[in-house]
Amino acid sequence: MTLKTRDALPTPLDYTTLPREELRDRILARKAERNAVILGHNYQRVEIQEVSDFLGDSLALSQEAADTDADTIVFCGVHFMAETAKVLSPEKTVLMPDPRAGCPMADFVTGDALRRLQEEHPDAVTVAYVNSTAEVKAMSDICCTSSNAVQVVETIDPDRTILFVPDRNLARYVQERTGRTNIIAWDGYCYVHDDLVLEELDRARKAHPEALVVIHPEARQELLDQADHITSTGGMVRMAEEHDALILGTERGLVDQLRARYPGKTFVPLSGAAVCGNMKLNTLAKLAWCLDHGRHEVVLEEGIRSRAERSLRRMLQVSGGWTAPTAEQEELELAGVRPKGCGCG
Ligand code: 13P
Ligand code: SF4
Q1: What integer is the mean pLDDT of 52-69?
Q2: Of ligand 1's atoms, which has the minimum distance to the CA of residue 58?
Q3: Are residues 220 and 205 in the same domain?
Q4: What is the tens place of the pLDDT at every residue in 175-209?
Q5: Any ligand 1 atom below 6 A from CB of 57
Q6: Residue 345: is its pLDDT beyond 50?
Q7: Residue 34 sits in the same domain as residue 115
Q8: Any idea what the CATH number is for the domain that residue 320 is in?
Q9: Are residues 91 and 24 part of one domain?
Q10: What's the pTM value of the predicted model, to 2 decimals?
Q11: What mean pLDDT do residues 304-324 have?
């Protein structure tokens, strides 16, 4: 199917009248025309997951964004994830199907508020969870995701105070795992994970006593204390390969993905209400519109982008997903030749 620009329909609403098969065909054809790659987070709707070239957690998606050969990255996730892709691949066009898909946790900390805290603790190291704005990343020393937060914090001098933003639950988990007592946590949280409650866990456990309980570290301490395993969404996907029954303390989209992938296994949401409305703003209709029109493009001010890149690449280096460029690669880059993979492993 060859598509020409004139076939584009004016608004995302017009695309909702098209059958799902046609939407999928359009998405695949336009993706090939644009040499685009679709990166989808594990919480996306199943129909978005089905057309994604790469599905993963925040860390895996950042690594993929830093590494891809595509000209355009279409990010099906939330705003900070698309921003991260732009920070790591500034020469590429990064598109979002719906720019309103933000992460409320990321909005808990602004640049100004973080600056005030840094002024109170001038010798502290700032660690920004990737669920933060590019501005906050730019003001931080290093980033982390839910899958490498402990590893990242372990690289920091034990005597230095850490300002950990914006997730208080992840900060507390890292504090416990590292034994550090000098972490100052921002008072932010994820409304989806912070709302998980023990009563729901008890009910799920009674109904499925054979299942292991796996919970995301964005959940509260009393939940994490009851978990058999604590890990990121990517870690949960890996656990699903090895186990026949899991109770999953995270967003529903991941449960839907695992049920579709392993129909013979038992995957139970810890809470049926654990839905991230922001992630669900992306639909097939909006994705088709986005690829047809080349919108909505993520644009970043270069000063912020380059400083945020430094914090993100430090994280990728800790996670083994990036190696510092050699002197020869740096010279080539200075001469305007960006070496393939730009140092990313
Ligand atoms: P993961 O990195 O584990 O996918 O988490 C991202 C997120 O937004 C969890 O709410
Ligand atoms: Fe943000 Fe929570 Fe949604 Fe993840 S699930 S994107 S942390 S609001």
Answers
A1: 94
A2: 2
A3: yes
A4: 999 999 999 999 999 999 999 999 999 999 999 99
A5: yes
A6: no
A7: no
A8: 3.40.50.10800
A9: yes
A10: 0.91
A11: 87
Domains in the chain: how many in total?
3
The reported pLDDT for the residue numbered 327 is: 65
Instruction: State in Å: Cα 276 to ligand 2 middle.
Output: 6
Residue 268 structure tokens:
């139970």
Nearest CA to ligand 2 atom 3: 276
Q: Measured from the CA of 56, which atom of ligand 1 is nearest?
A: 4
Q: Which ligand is nearest to the CA of 230?
A: 1
Which of the ligands is closest to the CA of residue 191?
A: 2
- One DSSP character per residue, 197-255 reads -HHHHHHHHHH-TTSEEEE-TTS-HHHHTT-SEE--HHHHHHHHHH-SEEEEES-HHHH
Tokens at 110, concatenated? 């602004």
Measured from the Cα of 250, ligand 2's closest atom is 5
Helices (H), the chain: 12-15, 20-33, 46-51, 58-67, 79-88, 111-120, 134-138, 149-154, 168-178, 191-194, 198-207, 221-224, 233-242, 252-261, 284-293, 302-318, 327-334
